[in-house]
């Protein structure tokens, strides 16, 4: 009976880890649920990092928003995560994600129209804080699902995709086990910058053997290196 209850709790925790990036705010101004965001209809995880689904997810709610969110370079952008694709629907102990889930939260940009597989760069990373012993997921939960970061002020103006991602590591002792939750938003970045950063590919930026993807003992870690490239800064 105890084994059954333990299995049930573990399964429930794994299911509750689900989360969805479904809205954006710019300098504190909420753009609206699903506005400019390609929101997946399911909050199921992507686990195959070699699949094209790792780019922006799959099975988007139709019709996909055609809105493009204007963001001045240097602005504060907030990616809003919630437990389901519907956004915040009321009190939920697993909103924006189950607090027992642990893992990093990251954000990438890619220039359009070539934002397919080969030109992503990281602009934000909240991994494991050795001082506070908090994961990015802990901070996401404390902040009500809001991950806030700055759009680099030196970026070349143009249209970009924003890829915001939370990774759940509770089952990541071997691959495939880590759970990836991401969506993409359509941005128009304005300004006078001229920089086009070095980029990585999706799929390709993450490897099944990366220490940030295969992790055991997430509740007793002393350090953690998130997968992917270093965060770009001007």
From TrEMBL:
<dbReference type="Pfam" id="PF03443">
    <property type="entry name" value="AA9"/>
</dbReference>
<dbReference type="InterPro" id="IPR005103">
    <property type="entry name" value="AA9_LPMO"/>
</dbReference>
<dbReference type="GO" id="GO:0030248">
    <property type="term" value="F:cellulose binding"/>
</dbReference>
<dbReference type="InterPro" id="IPR049892">
    <property type="entry name" value="AA9"/>
</dbReference>
<keyword id="KW-1015">Disulfide bond</keyword>
<dbReference type="GO" id="GO:0008810">
    <property type="term" value="F:cellulase activity"/>
</dbReference>
<keyword id="KW-0136">Cellulose degradation</keyword>
<feature type="signal peptide">
    <location>
        <begin position="1"/>
        <end position="17"/>
    </location>
</feature>
<dbReference type="GO" id="GO:0030245">
    <property type="term" value="P:cellulose catabolic process"/>
</dbReference>
<comment type="similarity">
    <text>Belongs to the polysaccharide monooxygenase AA9 family.</text>
</comment>
<keyword id="KW-0964">Secreted</keyword>
<keyword id="KW-0732">Signal</keyword>
<keyword id="KW-0119">Carbohydrate metabolism</keyword>
<feature type="domain" description="Auxiliary Activity family 9 catalytic">
    <location>
        <begin position="19"/>
        <end position="217"/>
    </location>
</feature>
<protein>
    <recommendedName>
        <fullName>AA9 family lytic polysaccharide monooxygenase</fullName>
        <ecNumber>1.14.99.56</ecNumber>
    </recommendedName>
</protein>
<dbReference type="GO" id="GO:0005576">
    <property type="term" value="C:extracellular region"/>
</dbReference>
<comment type="function">
    <text>Lytic polysaccharide monooxygenase (LMPO) that depolymerizes crystalline and amorphous polysaccharides via the oxidation of scissile alpha- or beta-(1-4)-glycosidic bonds, yielding C1 and/or C4 oxidation products. Catalysis by LPMOs requires the reduction of the active-site copper from Cu(II) to Cu(I) by a reducing agent and H(2)O(2) or O(2) as a cosubstrate.</text>
</comment>
<keyword id="KW-0378">Hydrolase</keyword>
<keyword id="KW-0624">Polysaccharide degradation</keyword>
């Amino acid at each position: 009976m105890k084994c059954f209850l333990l299995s049930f709790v573990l399964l429930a925790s794994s299911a509750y880890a689900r989360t969805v990036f479904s809205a954006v705010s710019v300098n504190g101004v909420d753009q609206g649920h699903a506005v400019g965001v390609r929101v997946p209809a399911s909050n199921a995880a992507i686990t195959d990092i070699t699949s094209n689904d790792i780019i922006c997810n799959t099975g988007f709610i139709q019709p996909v928003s055609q809105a493009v969110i204007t963001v001045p370079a240097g602005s504060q952008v907030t990616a809003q995560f919630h437990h389901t694709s519907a956004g915040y629907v009321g009190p939920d102990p697993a909103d924006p994600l189950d607090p027992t889930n642990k893992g990093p939260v990251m954000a990438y940009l890619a220039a359009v129209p070539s934002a397919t597989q080969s030109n992503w760069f990281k602009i934000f990373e909240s991994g494991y804080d050795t001082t506070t012993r908090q994961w990015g997921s802990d901070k996401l939960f404390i902040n009500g699902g809001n991950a806030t970061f700055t759009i680099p002020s030196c970026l070349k103006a143009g249209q970009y995709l924003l890829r915001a991602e939370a990774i759940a590591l509770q089952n990541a002792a071997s691959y495939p086990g880590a759970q990836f939750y991401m969506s993409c938003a359509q941005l128009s970045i304005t300004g006078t910058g001229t920089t086009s950063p070095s980029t990585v590919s999706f799929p390709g930026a993450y490897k099944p053997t990366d220490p940030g993807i295969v992790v055991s003992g997430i509740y007793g870690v002393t350090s953690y290196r998130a997968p992917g490239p270093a965060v770009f800064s001007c």
